[in-house]
Amino acid sequence: MTERAYTDISDEDLLVLTRNSELEAFDALVDRYLDSLLVTVFREVGDMTTAENLVHNIFEEAFQGAATLLKQQSMRTWLFKIVFQHIGRSQRINSESLLGLEKALATLVPEHRHVLVLREREDFSYEEISIILGIPTTAVQSALISARLELLKHCSTKQNQLTDKQNSVSKTRV
Questions:
Q1: Is 96 exposed, middle or buried (0-12, 13-18, 19+ CB in 10 A)?
Q2: What CATH number did the domain enclosing 43 receive?
Q3: Which of 112, 121, 163, 165: disulfide with 108, CB 3.0–4.6 Å?
């Protein structure tokens, strides 16, 4: 089959072909999910080289575990589950290289950050996040609320610091 022919095949069918040792089918899955995984991992670790290495390892694990993917899970959910397992094992966030919201996200505890990223950036449902992170749906909802409150508090603190700095500059000019 040509690579172009794989674009019209569902993830499930590509996975069946992969299980039958058709490597081009897995390559098509990699092409389908590479950018999304790379962006997510980069946002989590803050370093492109580290992100590329992790994504490579994620796809290796996915290939080796292709036979074990549960039929009730989507390929996307399964891959992101592997992503956050890998990130959990190699938590190296370089907050100095992150800006604005990225810095604020870096201040969150990992579980809260993971839930927020999966919900707000990747648009996963509570149930999918529960599967990816291996926590109950109620814990996902609680972590999301906590993460949003922590971000709000962080942004308020930064805004107050900026206002104080502006006020002190104004007073010195008078």
A1: exposed
A2: 1.10.1740.10
A3: 112
